[in-house]
Amino acid sequence: MHEQTLVYGLGKEYLEYEEWIHKHFFVKGYCDQDEQKLPIENGLTKQELKNRIDEFDTILVTADPVSIVADLIDEFSLPYDRIKVLFYEAKILNSAATVFYGENLEDAALMYLFENLGFKADDIKYVEIGTNDPVRYNNSYNFYLRGSRGCLVDPLPAVEYLVRLMRPEDRFINAAISDKSIPSANFYACTSSSISSLSGTHHSKFDGKTINTVKEIKVEIIGINDLFERLGYVPNLLLIDAEGEDEKIIRSIDYNRYRPTVIMVEVDHMIMGNKDLIAYMQYQNYIHFTTIKYNMIFVSR
Predict the structure, then answer these.
(1) Which among 206, 207, 253, 208 is positioned nearest to 226, based on CA atoms?
(2) Where in the chain is the domain with CATH 3.40.50.150?
(3) d(CA 6, CA 30)
(4) Of 5, 192, 194, 282, which shows the fewest CB atoms inside 10 Å?
(5) Superfamily for 4-93?
(6) DSSP strand pairing (286-292 vs 295-300)
């Protein structure tokens, strides 16, 4: 409580948790990319923070952690152990704060499904392609809390820190997934919470307003079948949210060799329609369990 803390981010989440933050942290400074939000007292611009960051024991991130943590590490050279994330801290201090984590409660449907299939939590192995935040809006975190373990895959390097912080028993692979493996390729990494993708066209189509916040980074691309081969197991639960690569992935799985029990795939960026996807998965001997907004869930017969 006596550690001097800087709050990084003064948007809606900070305002929602403001009283809670000041109850649990000794706040001595504030920073936000929008300088108009800074208070007169103890408000620091990003440039000022770079010169004074050693005055603070802890940086409390109160907005999108994937983009801000990357910013703190890359631009400020801040050690991991001085960064905390509001949503995670609230979860630790108040375990009843959230029951489900999926953006549209997809994890509730998945947990219901596995329970009815007769699986115990510690028997479930998952692979999550396109993890982004490993807690907030995440569909495998509830499985992790209940004893399941697996592999999280994401091309954004900052995600690894968040995984190490909140899910240390999961494996993390810093790569993009597609239909085939390529040692190095361009990835359009968005520094906001918007879309990042292997495809510049895909990014421009769905996130053109933030094109100035995108930077190209080099990433390894792992083919989906090569990923299973590398892991050495077939997951019971495969989650696919790969921003433009989803259709390539689900069509290129060798279902004779690798047959996940349950597959959830994001469908709103696919060329083929939902009926075509259902027909394709039926041909692969999967049943369409349900559709929740952007995601379809299939179960192997």
Answers:
(1) 253
(2) 106-181+221-300
(3) 5
(4) 282
(5) NAD(P)-binding Rossmann-like Domain (3.40.50.720)
(6) antiparallel
pLDDT along the chain (301 residues), means of 10: 89 92 95 92 94 95 87 85 89 64 94 96 96 93 96 91 93 94 76 54 49 71 96 97 89 97 88 86 97 95 93
Measured CA to CA, the distance from residue 140 to residue 243 in angstroms comes to 18
Q: For 40-135, where are the alpha helices, taking DSSP H only?
A: 46-52, 65-76, 86-93, 106-116
116's tokens: 């009815």
* Domain covering 106-181+221-300, topology: Rossmann fold (3.40.50)
pLDDT given at position 32: 92
Q: Evaluate whether 148 touches 125 at the Cβ level (below 8 Å).
A: yes
Residues of the chain with CATH 3.40.50.720: 4-93
Where do we find the tokens 């699986």?
119
> What pLDDT sits at residue 94?
62
How far apart CA 277 and CA 209 sit, in angstroms, is: 30
DSSP state of 197: B
Give the span between the Cα atoms of 263 and 1, in whole angstroms.
43
Predicted local distance difference test score (pLDDT) of residue 203: 45
Q: d(Cα 263, Cα 297) in Å, to the nearest integer?
A: 6
